[in-house]
């Protein structure tokens, strides 16, 4: 019971928080909520299956672009629905053709996907519509963006929790451990991976769509910024990609750390960033949550000994 | 009792310290008798080159000159030193937007200076309007400037639109054709990016209207580094004029390619990068006659003085397009503060209606836009001189045909 109640109380607190903080505080909350959503959605597919995807920004950018193209033609909820559908359809097509790739081949492909999407949109805009750079003039306040992102983040966590308990989650974990064994146990590899990939992509696309009204101007070079993909991966890995709360736990402190570094050390910040990445990989390869568990596990037997 | 190892504790400690620092970082310094000016510019990422050449050196130079003179003068004659609050926007709009919110609501700065780039200036425009800050958007080339100025009435757009530059170039070429110096054929290449598309969309109808024939018209993707095929096709097209709506890497690459293949069109025009102080070096000392976007009145004492001060302060000369205008926008701000103080509404009204004495001459905005600009410049005798609009005070006569490389 408490496992459901605590997150709900937390969510309620986060919902009313904008009433008590400055605009900058709200900006920070949006940023943190966005990265929690991105990292959790990324882990929904990659955390369990161990398929490291660098395609996050391909979907995120597609979401922003969908809003830019459709915001004058359709009502806002319909635009969001279109964004999710486009992201899902894209993931379906891509997933069908590429989820057979494994290991480093999949990583390289997923990285290329963002570039491919960017170039396709550029080509289309240059040769067909003859404009590049679109404007988003929507009457959406910063608070509304925050609440939408919060809702999406909560939905992502709820979905992940549900999947983890379902047959789908079990199948994904087996695939992550050993794909051959999974196939022999009668798991439909292609279908399982595809479902998770499409769900994850839909959330990533929606996240991009929700934040886009904050930037007014959209251009392929701006929305397909590969840093977003890298940050998402490193955040999820820091917290622990195969746990429910791991990505969220990695995203919040890293996001705040980046914010602190970039404002206080604007010139040297990329160096800190690189060191931080190395630190994460060397010190907490399985994520903070796993680390905490090993620490408490080491402590537990001792207390037992002390009692006897 | 070895429950938690020292290593683990150290790790936890450093982690905790980072988070705490992050949370307390925003705490303002002690309120002094200063004017706080904030900006969030690209120190890292793709926009860092542009910001590093045009925007940041001018901000630093201006703050330095003002503070050396005792500070900003206020209407009552008192002077206040400038205190700068600077953030890196990492060339990402999400970070930029947050930095502006931080400057406005956390640091509560008195004035905010804009970032580099069209997209960045548009991204912050709604926020600047919301917080009421005047926005002197210099490095934003957009044909929609009139629309934006109407939408955000405290925004000022100071670099014109793609159509303006395209039309200026067509004027120069049409005059040369009517004089019989060049033929009526033009070869155009443009970069597939917001800027290149804006210019080519303005140029196509303008060339057609002036009776030119676009015998070659190709776009190339951003990031292209091999221009040999493009250039040899342009060379074979029979056009006397070669026009590139390009970004610095492309502008430089095409110059080198044209030199190595011996392509000598009578007019060689490139866009961004052509007015950079490093261009003559890129062109191997043979920049004479090359045309490019922008330009300055190289004979004006104010400009010469500005170039000298810029070179002394930053160690390099400014570019001859947006740099002087950036500096002029800061001088406008300085003079407006002296006349009406730091109240944002009064400042915006003064910037919109006032007349200012700057390095680019006397400036008066029209509908919140600077329209009195140079559209085309040319390297002549080692300086990048403005040649169009030709009737503007300080214009040099274009040299066509360009001497061979």
From TrEMBL, chain A:
GO terms for cellular component: plasma membrane. It is a multi-pass membrane protein. The lineage of its organism: Bacteria, Pseudomonadati, Pseudomonadota, Alphaproteobacteria, Rhodobacterales. PANTHER family: ABC TRANSPORTER ATP-BINDING PROTEIN, HIGH-AFFINITY BRANCHED-CHAIN AMINO ACID TRANSPORT SYSTEM PERMEASE. InterPro entries: ABC_transp_permease (IPR001851), LivM-like (IPR043428). It is found in: Cell membrane. It comes from the Bacteria. GO terms for molecular function: branched-chain amino acid transmembrane transporter activity. Keywords: Cell membrane, Membrane, Transmembrane, Transmembrane helix. This is Amino acid/amide ABC transporter membrane protein 2, HAAT family. It holds the Pfam family BPD_transp_2. The chain crosses the membrane at residues 28-45, 52-70, 76-96, 103-124, 144-163, 194-211, 217-237, 244-263, 269-289. It comes from Pseudooceanicola nitratireducens.
From TrEMBL, chain B:
The keyword Transport applies. The lineage of its organism: Bacteria, Pseudomonadati, Pseudomonadota, Alphaproteobacteria, Rhodobacterales. This is Amino acid/amide ABC transporter substrate-binding protein, HAAT family. PROSITE patterns: TAT. It comes from Pseudooceanicola nitratireducens. Coiled coil: none annotated. Residues 1-30 form the signal peptide. Residues 34-382 form the Leucine-binding protein domain. It holds the Pfam family Peripla_BP_6. Belongs to the leucine-binding protein family. Keywords: Amino-acid transport, Signal, Transport. GO terms for biological process: amino acid transport. It comes from the Bacteria.
């Amino acid at each position: 019971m408490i496992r459901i109640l605590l997150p709900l109380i937390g969510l309620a607190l986060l919902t009313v928080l904008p009433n008590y903080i400055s605009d900058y505080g709200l900006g920070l909350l949006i940023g943190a909520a966005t990265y929690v959503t991105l990292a959790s959605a990324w882990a929904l597919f990659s955390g369990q299956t161990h398929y490291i995807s660098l395609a996050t920004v391909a979907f995120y950018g597609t979401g922003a672009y969908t809003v830019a193209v459709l915001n004058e033609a359709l009502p806002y909820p319909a635009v969001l629905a279109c964004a999710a559908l486009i992201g899902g359809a894209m993931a379906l097509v891509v997933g069908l053709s590429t989820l057979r790739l494994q290991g480093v081949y999949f990583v390289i492909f997923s990285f290329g996907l963002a570039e491919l999407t960017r170039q396709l949109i550029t080509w289309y805009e240059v040769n067909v519509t003859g404009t590049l750079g679109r404007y988003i003039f929507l009457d959406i306040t910063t608070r509304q963006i925050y609440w939408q992102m919060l809702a999406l983040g909560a939905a992502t966590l709820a979905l992940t929790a549900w999947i983890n308990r379902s047959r789908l989650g079990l199948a994904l974990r087996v695939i992550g451990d050993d794909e051959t064994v999974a196939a022999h146990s009668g798991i439909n590899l292609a279908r399982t991976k595809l479902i998770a990939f499409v769900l994850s992509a839909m959330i990533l696309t929606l996240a991009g769509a929700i934040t886009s009204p904050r930037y007014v101007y959209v251009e392929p070079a701006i929305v397909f910024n590969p840093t977003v993909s890298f940050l998402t991966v490193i955040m999820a890995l820091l917290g622990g990609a195969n746990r429910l709360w791991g990505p969220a736990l990695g995203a919040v402190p890293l996001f705040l750390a980046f914010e602190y570094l970039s404002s206080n050390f604007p010139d040297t910040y990329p160096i800190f960033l690189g060191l931080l990445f190395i630190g994460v990989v060397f010190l907490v390869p399985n994520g903070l949550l796993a680390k905490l568990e090993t620490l408490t596990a080491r402590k537990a037997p001792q207390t037992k000994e002390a009692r006897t | 009792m070895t429950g938690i190892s020292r290593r683990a504790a150290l790790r936890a400690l450093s982690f905790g310290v980072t988070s705490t620092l992050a949370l307390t970082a925003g705490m303002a310094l002690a309120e002094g008798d200063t004017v706080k000016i904030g900006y969030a510019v690209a120190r890292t990422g793709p926009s860092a080159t542009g910001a590093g050449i045009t925007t940041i050196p001018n901000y630093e130079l201006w703050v330095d000159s003002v503070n050396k003179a005792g500070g900003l003068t206020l209407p009552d004659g008192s002077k206040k030193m400038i205190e700068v609050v600077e953030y890196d926007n990492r060339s990402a709009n999400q970070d930029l937007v947050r930095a502006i919110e931080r400057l406005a609501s956390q640091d509560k700065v008195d004035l905010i200076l804009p970032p580099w780039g069209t997209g960045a200036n548009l991204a912050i425009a709604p926020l600047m309007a919301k917080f009421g800050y005047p926005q002197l958007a210099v490095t934003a080339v957009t044909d929609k400037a009139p629309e934006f100025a109407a939408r955000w009435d405290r925004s000022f757009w100071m670099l014109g639109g793609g159509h303006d530059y395209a039309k200026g170039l067509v004027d120069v070429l049409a005059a040369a054709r009517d004089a019989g110096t060049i033929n009526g054929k033009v070869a155009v290449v443009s970069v597939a990016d917001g800027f290149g598309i804006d210019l080519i969309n303005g140029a196509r109808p303008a060339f057609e209207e002036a009776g030119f024939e676009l015998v070659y018209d190709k776009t190339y993707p951003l990031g292209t580094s091999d221009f040999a095929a493009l250039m040899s096709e342009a060379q074979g097209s029979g056009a006397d004029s070669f026009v590139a709506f390009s970004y610095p890497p492309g502008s430089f690459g095409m110059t080198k390619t044209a030199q190595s293949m011996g392509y000598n069109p009578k007019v060689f025009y490139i866009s961004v990068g052509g007015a950079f102080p490093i261009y003559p070096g890129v062109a191997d000392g043979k920049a004479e006659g090359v045309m490019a976007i922008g330009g300055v009145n190289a004979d004006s004492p104010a400009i010469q003085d500005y170039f000298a001060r810029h070179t002394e302060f930053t160690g390099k000369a400014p570019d001859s397009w947006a740099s002087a205008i950036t500096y002029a926008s800061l001088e406008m701000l300085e003079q407006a503060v002296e006349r009406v103080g730091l109240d944002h509404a009064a400042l915006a009204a003064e910037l919109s209606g006032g007349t200012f004495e700057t390095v680019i001459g006397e400036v008066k905005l029209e509908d919140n836009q600077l329209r009195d600009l140079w559209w085309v410049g040319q390297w002549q005798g080692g300086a990048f001189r403005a040649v169009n609009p030709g009737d503007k005070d300080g214009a040099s006569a274009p040299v066509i045909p360009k001497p061979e490389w």
